[in-house]
Amino acid sequence: MSFALALLLAIGTTTICAAKTFVYVSNAHLDRSHRALPVHRLLRRQQTRGEPDRREWASRSGSDSRDSTGRNAHSILPDRSNKFVYAATLGADQVLQFTFDSKTGKLTPNDPAAVSPGPGHGPRHMVLSPDNKNLYVINELSGYVTQYAVDSSKGTLTLIESTSSVPADAGLAWGTPQAPVGAAPTPAAPPPKDEKPKVWAADIQITPNGKFLYSTERTTSKIALFIVAPGTGKLTYVTNFATEAQARGIRIDPSGQYLVASGEKSDQLAVYKIDQSTGKLGEPGRYPVGNGANWVEIVDVQ
Predict the structure, then answer these.
(1) What is the Cα Rg of the chain in Å?
(2) Is residue 84 part of a domain?
(3) Domain range spanning residue 76?
(4) How confident is the model at residue 34 (pLDDT cuts 50, 70, 90)?
(5) What pLDDT sits at residue 301?
(6) Which of 49-63, 76-90, 133-147, 157-171 has the lowest mean pLDDT?
(7) Cα 78–chain centre separation
(8) CB-based contacts of 183: which residues, under 8 Å, 6+ apart?
(9) Contact, 36 vs 106, CB < 8 A?
(10) Is residue 193 part of a domain?
(11) Domain tally for the chain?
(12) CATH number at residue 91
């Protein structure tokens, strides 16, 4: 199964339900969809056909479930009860919410079907608090982290607040969504000479104890640190740390002791020790990984 999941990471953000029976894939740039792929079918395809082409995964039809989303569906995440699923669609400025049938893998739009952080934010990646009470979304275009309260019985989200991960002195302006792959380019006037560089936020993670939350921003190559308030789950921005060039994926190990970061323009991974009382990152160790690393996954090898 590890190999099948590795193939899917090339398409878009991929996650597996708690029962480990369905893999969910979001296609950010290909066909505005997310899909439910039974794990047993992935393994059978791997064994009989080898590695599929990236676009083949996005275009297959049949018994796999595909649900249409708004433009740039960037990530999909089941909740910890395995009853509900959320999908972030950057181009539509929405987080879609579904009920989840763990036997069939079917997703049914919840009521309401979506929530929004507001126009122009661009929801990208998501993480749930360890107690399953809050969903945090990093918005790619604004750099804000939006907190939603999760209704444990209905699975619906309620917007609490949005907190910036990018300090004002960074000098960045909000970004704009990229066109889908294959779309005709839109003619644009040359930017003014004094135009500010754009926010380009990427990933988000929370420590297993729920005390600290981190996010990445690619333009400045920084990792932001937030403290999570006990009880309310509200965020307080603390500081940011320089990391790998064009910072992309981060992951925290299951013990909550270390944070691993990748950069799209770096050939190294950075590994930081997390201060357990403040959440601050220590001096990193660096390890070669080759060019263009953009995603980090930690697996338990037995």
Answers:
(1) 19
(2) yes
(3) 2-177+198-288
(4) low
(5) 82
(6) 49-63
(7) 12
(8) none
(9) yes
(10) no
(11) 1
(12) 2.130.10.10
The whole-angstrom separation of Cα 136 and Cα 151 is: 14
Q: Which two structure tokens, joined as six digits, stand for 276?
A: 């357990």
- Residue 127 to residue 214: CA distance in whole angstroms: 10
CB 216 within 8 A of CB 248: yes
Q: Which residues contact 182 (CB under 8 A, 6 or more apart)?
A: none
Count of residues in the chain: 302
Query: Looking at residues 240-259, what average pLDDT do you find?
Result: 97
Torsion of CA 28, 31, 146, 200, to 10 degrees: 40
Structure tokens at 155: 């699975």
